[in-house]
## 1
Amino acid sequence: MEEGPALTRGRDGTGIDGLDALIEGGFQERKAYLICGEPGTGKTTFCLQFLLKGLGQGEPGVYVTIDEKPSHLIEDAQSMGWDLAPHLDRKELLILDASPYFTNLRLGKERELDVRQIVSDLGKHMKSLGARRLVIDPVAPLIFKEEGQAVVMEYIRSLIFSIEDNLGCTALFTSHMVTGSERLSRFGVEEFIVSGIVLLRIVRAQNRYIRTLFVRKMRGTALDLTEYSFDIVRGRGIVLRQAV
Ligand SMILES: Nc1ncnc2c1ncn2[C@@H]1O[C@H](COP(=O)(O)OP(=O)(O)O)[C@@H](O)[C@H]1O
Ligand SMILES: [Mg+2]
């Protein structure tokens, strides 16, 4: 009997040197992924590389920042040797500051976030660019205390679902991992919903610290569960090295 065509989704290259080979070519198209790690582990660098990879092959992208001003992101990219200005000028890259959506919630003026409004606004921006890649860094802001958690969990859940259902893009969400904690994401829901999880860490190895990357979950993909060390190199960003 002849075999039919494999029903596999197309893959989007991650832009990280050495990573695509470990995950059957990249992230599955139009799926959502979580990039987890403590501050300084390289999440923003990872996301920038992902968008730059798309831009390099004619795929526009949108970067949503919440805890960081767009101007800071542009400066950070500059320090890595990446000039975002031409992409912004050509309107193939858009950086959006989503913090206003959270302001009233933080001030206690509103009890819930209107995720449909957020996704609808985001959708309009993405459509105007023809965006194929989306980054939301971080998926939930740092500002919430315990009492805000139920609201934020519901927001994250519906945000991820409606982005996968409605926006037709491959999306990365970042999540702060609490220092010293085994929990990957701050609220614990993101891990279950997304199609894959990449964990970035800084770990002690003998008398020094090294950066590591571990693909913890990737639906539809055979994983070897090896943790790799990596460097952050100006001009190249995250560069995978050997297994640790
Ligand atoms: N120009 C650069 N060259 C090499 N490494 C850099 C450069 N700029 C930043 N880094 C490294 O990248 C790290 C920050 O990564 P970042 O992606 O911002 O982390 P996160 O978003 O997880 O907080 C810094 O702590 C620094 O070590
Ligand atoms: Mg960051």
## 2
Amino acid sequence: MRLIGSYTSPFVRRVGVTLRLHGLAFTQVPYATDADATAIRGFNPLGRVPVLVLEHGEVLIDSGMIVDHLDDLVGPERALTPRAGPARRQVNRLVALALGATEKYLAAYHERNARPEAKAWPRWLERLEAQAHAGLAALDGMVGTPWCGGEAFTQTDICVTVALRAMRFDMPHLAPFGRFPGLDAIAAAAEKLDAFAATRPR
Ligand SMILES: N[C@@H](CCC(=O)N[C@@H](CS)C(=O)NCC(=O)O)C(=O)O
């Protein structure tokens, strides 16, 4: 399998961590969304990463669809999202919050860094940052220990960890250490695992 995208993208890192935790062999093609936009569009008309190219050439896009397929490959015992019922809904609920906060911080980051200063729109930036912050605050009140759902490590722990790392790199004021102690503890424990160390962007 080939994973298209650089680990500077939290969504790509999510897939890279999942592949490694599942012990699935893959090669990474670290295309950057700006410099390699044309090449990425050859795989995904949206021009977004991650993309996973399966062994027989089939192309999967969107991290959620990709990790769902990876869970199918390893079977229900090792799946990182429970296959059905309340446990599945709870993992998906926390994943949606973590990924929603990630999308909002990325939009804020682009608003801050890509928009020409003369066209700055402070109220929109404030709104995006508040949404990202509120998502993390809500999550922080919902997680257990040592992992989000208690004893079982799930896809939620991956999403929280990649979100915090990326946000702290790009917009550290949105998630300073100590503001979300529950998430801090989970991310610190996860970052010690080999799958996270091997995918940590420089
Ligand atoms: N919902 C998508 C989001 C993917 C996404 O937003 N990827 C960003 C990189 S962090 C991207 O490719 N952005 C380039 C663009 O949208 O032009 C997923 O979960 O895979």
